[in-house]
Amino acid sequence: MIDNNEKLEKFDGKKYVGIISLVFIIAIFFGYVSSSLQPDQSEKFIESVFESLSFIDFNNPLEVFMIIFLNNSSKAFIAMVAGFFFGIFPVSFVFLNGYIIGVIIYVKGSELGILRVAVSLLPHGILEIPAVIIASAYGLYLGKLFYLRVFRSRSIDMKLAMKEFIKKFITVIIPILLIAALIETFVTPYLIYRFS
């Protein structure tokens, strides 16, 4: 019988973060290339994305901050816990986000210039993206544990695994996303203004 605690300690962060990061990079490339091949459809896609945010009062920084933080933290949490289902959701979640970023880089880069796009994405993205990738890596690992338990009859305590990863989510992911949301709310708009 496998010792549960020993199994959980064998989480290979570099391996799973590497896999998720590769998916993210491929998705950005795919989004960029597909946009260059179908620019009109990509512009409509981006318009629909921004229209979905029309309910936000951007003149109210506190509201913007809360929406950004709650949206990112809830989605990152779902990406992690939904990894139970063989890691399908976290991989799909990261791919979709990478694809959208790739489309934005092409569409808005052509319209506003790559520098302004970089300024609008990088200040908070350097924290937000790694946090989402780490949360999704946890989810992918949970998917592996679930697979081993169901199909390999391994004695793995999934409740213990979930408890450990929720603890890491609260102590690692949440603080990073909190800082990223503050930057996106108060710093990024200023930088966009300065470089416009």
UniProtKB/TrEMBL annotation:
Keyword Nucleus: no
Keywords associated with the record: Membrane, Transmembrane, Transmembrane helix
Pfam families: SpoIIM
Protein's UniProt name: Uncharacterized membrane protein
InterPro entries tied to this protein: SpoIIM-like (IPR002798)
Originating organism: Archaeoglobus sulfaticallidus PM70-1
Key word Transmembrane helix present: yes
Transmembrane segments: 16-33, 53-70, 77-107, 127-148, 169-193
Organism lineage string: Archaea, Methanobacteriati, Methanobacteriota, Archaeoglobi, Archaeoglobales
